[in-house]
Amino acid sequence: MTEYRKIEISEETVLRGLPDNCGRVVDTASNVAGLISSVIGSSNSLRDDHLALRQNIQELEADQDRVSQASDEARLLSEKAIARLGEGTELISGSLERINELIELVGALTDHVTGFAAAMDQVRRSTLDIEKIAETTNMLALNASIEAQRAGDAGANFSVVATEVKTLAANTRKATEEIGKTMDALASEAGTVITQIEDGASESRLAQESVSRIEQTLGSVVQLVEEVDKQNDQIARSTCTISDHVLRVKDVLESFDAASDANDRQLSRSSERLTGLEDIANDLFNQLVHSGVAAIDERMAKAATEGHAEAMRVTEQALADGVISESQIFDENYQEIAGSKPKRYRNRLMDWAHENWRPILDATTEKDDAIIFALLNDMNGYLPTHISAQSQAPTGDLKHDELYCFNGRMIEVDRRKWESMPLETYSMYTYRQPRADGKFWLMRCASIPFVINGRRWGNFVVGYRLRSDRK
């Protein structure tokens, strides 16, 4: 049977190791809390994307409804257009039939008028023949009158006949002249009528060709409308399919919402528990330092107390001398410094603080190699100045300015922690300080409230790192 030997550990060793262990607990808790915060941030970002997706889905659904309505309306319009085009085709077909009948009628009328013209030509020729006969008859009557005069009384009766014949010839000639004039007028009118009929027949043929082309065009339009109607039917079916997919996506998104909400609640509870664990570790660390079992940390608290006292002395003296006013010290009108990145701000305290508090911060930092910085921040997290090493002039290089240009910056506000600190003494805690490269430092801090004329302005803080914190 294996025997286990008891390991002897002195109480002093345990107590000496407690501050380091408290720091590691805070570091681990902060690390996990940071990861949880990152997860929550990713979840929130994902939720924002999810909300945007839901909005897009809603808009897509609305678009689908509009497309469906438009497709139905287009289908109705297509049906009406096909019906109207059918009616138009029937009307045009009827018009073509009537135009064809009119062309046939015009052709027949042209034939009749042409026959009438031929008959008039025949009448004109007959009239010319009659006129010639009348002239011949007139000559014969003239000769008969001459012979009757030669015959004397014996030719008296023959003379009367010759005179009548002459009169008849004259009347016949006059009648043929009238007939000729009438026939000329009729010929002129017939020519005009024939020309108009021929023009009408030509226009009718052109109208027939135009109507035929319109009929062909309407046929093409009917085919096109029918094709559009088929496409609308296909669009309607596709729209129904897309709508089904959209509904499935909505169901998936709703399931994701429920799961995301449950995860967020679990993460929030975990974050709260880790914050509580961090607070417990910090309270234990603070109590250990105050109990005198953490000599190194107690030395840092002493440096913070001395720096705080000197800063208070200088500030109260300046107020008493009228060099600076209380309203300047508590000025919260932070004006952004143009072009600063990270953003830096100026107020009425900044110049005085840089001139009078910065040397105290430098002196406090130089008291121990473990001290990284000393600072003064107001209750809004504003740093009117900082140690000289971290109050350098900006270069425009973001990495440099993030690390070495802290004067005028705003730090993260932890009002819960700050307001829980006792005003009459220091408080010890550890935290993870973010670096420009995305990494963190485990920092220990001694913080003392900075109170002026009974008003809490902010905190005097000393940040330090022991060798054990740098492993």
Please provide a brief summary of the model.
With 471 residues, the protein is an alpha+beta fold.
Q: Helicity range of the residues?
A: over 70%
CA-based gyration radius:
61 Å
Shape: rod-shaped
The sequence of SSEs as H and E is HHHHEEHHEHHEEE
Beta-strand residue percentage: 5-15%
Please report the number of helical segments.
Answer: 8
Number of domains: 2
What name is given to the CATH topology of the largest domain? Helix Hairpins
**What is the makeup of the main sheet?**
4 strands, antiparallel
Q: How would you state the average pLDDT, rounded? A: 78
**Low-confidence sequence ranges:** none
Q: In which order are the strands of the major sheet placed?
A: 3-6-5-4
Protein name: Methyl-accepting chemotaxis protein
Keywords: Coiled coil, Transducer
GO molecular function: transmembrane signaling receptor activity
Family: Belongs to the methyl-accepting chemotaxis (MCP) protein family.
